[in-house]
Amino acid sequence: MKLSIIGTGYVGSVTGICFADMGHQICFVDVDQIKLDAINSGKSPIYEPDLDNLLMKNRTKITTTTDIPEAVNQTDLTMICVGTPQKTDGSSDLRFINDAAYSIGKALADKDKKYHTVIVKSTVLPGTTSNVVKPVLERESGKEATVDFGIGANPEFLKEGNAVKDFFHTDRIVIGANDPKTKKTLEGLYKPLHAPIFTTNIKTAEMIKYVSNAFLATKISFSNEIGNLCKVNDIDSYEVFRGVSLDCRINPHFFRSGIGFGGSCFPKDVHALIAFAESQGIDTKILKAVIRTNDDQPQKLIALLKKHLDIRGKKIGILGLSFKPDTDDIRESRAIPVVQALLEEGAQILAYDPMAMPGFKTLFPRISYAKSSKEVLETDALMIITEWKEFFDIDYKGKIVIDGRKVNKARREADIYEGICW
Ligand code: UGA
């Protein structure tokens, strides 16, 4: 099949390159020529394990353009993979979705009779595909959805750092379509993955994505709340959840209590779901508590440090700046509130991260950055924010360590050790 992928961010790049590997022809579209140049030269615009290799392997099946109509004209199906940033009131900014729909609609107006399918892969609130994207497509094309062209939603469940594996070995594929032709097209596209396919209507598919992320975020905040309670009772929360999750009704994933969740998805999606509910007069007490607990965890880490050290004027080493290991992504990283609080308390900071320092420098240009994790050891106390593999090999002997991610070696070796939930 010939697919056009609009947006070469995280979702678009991974999806397009993986579909190319499945044998499809891919045309990437982006307003940013630099990202397209990267793709053309065999380099993925985002860092993701295995993605560059897969891109190199499938280069002959991949083209790029900045022109949406050109891409739509030469393909059978278009996937909208643009960003939906968070607005100040928590709701989603649909500017890029609207722009994409407008250009696709214009292109469909001129496209020959061949049936074209438009799929929204970006995370959008229930109703967006049918109430925002569809009317723009119909208005600009002068054609009717599900009669002259197909429309659907197909949310992604890719984790950063594991996205290629998640694409090829997913727990499930969710297809949202209100007409048989779009359903059949998407089911055919995913069939070779041999994964369970859950087909439903568009609105439900959109909701499934939010509920999945909101539930995972809830599990994390729940494990953090329980972890905080375990801590004061001298109980190891990890051991508790190992015991709890032997119950087959409770699976063991996403109970790693610690400093909380970050990233471009969980915080944004939970806020958007809260705003969506509130716009309909529904108070989401649980979701609000999920955010509150998450916001409190970094402050708890600071309080633990203060128990052992008068922070003012001291040099504090920060291990890890990305929102999780194996990525350079610092969006909503828990390192941000930690560093902010330390600066307010008058600390000097020496930070280290294997990948995320360039990004962090744009946010905090004035703090010091180390060349290696070893260099960070020359500080008055260490705070572990991200569980990068190399932090499990550091010599923590004689150090004060405040740990947000349960690095057991630090627990065994440090002179003074405090885990946030254990
Ligand atoms: C998340 C979801 O896991 C994906 O299924 C989804 O497709 C994606 O969002 C998205 O909406 O695009 P991602 O944000 O890449 O993926 O990262 P996760 O691995 O889920 O981790 C998110 C945050 O939760 C990280 O800060 C991580 O450290 C934290 N976390 C995760 C915990 O604190 N405890 C846990 O037990 C698990």
Describe this protein's structure:
The chain has 422 residues and is α/β, with parallel strands linked by helices. The protein has 2 domains: 2-200, Rossmann fold, CATH 3.40.50; 213-419, Rossmann fold, CATH 3.40.50. The chain has 16 helices and 14 strands. It has an 8-stranded mixed beta sheet, with helices on both faces. Helix 14 (357-363) links the parallel strand 10 and strand 11 (368-369). The model has no long low-confidence stretch (mean pLDDT 96). Residues 123, 156-160, 213, 216, 220, 254-256, 258, 260-263, 265-266, 323-324 line the site of uridine-5'-diphosphate-glucuronic acid.
Structural key phrases:
six-stranded parallel beta sheet; 422 residues; 2 domains; Rossmann fold; 14% strand; alpha/beta; 14 strands; eight-stranded mixed beta sheet; binds uridine-5'-diphosphate-glucuronic acid
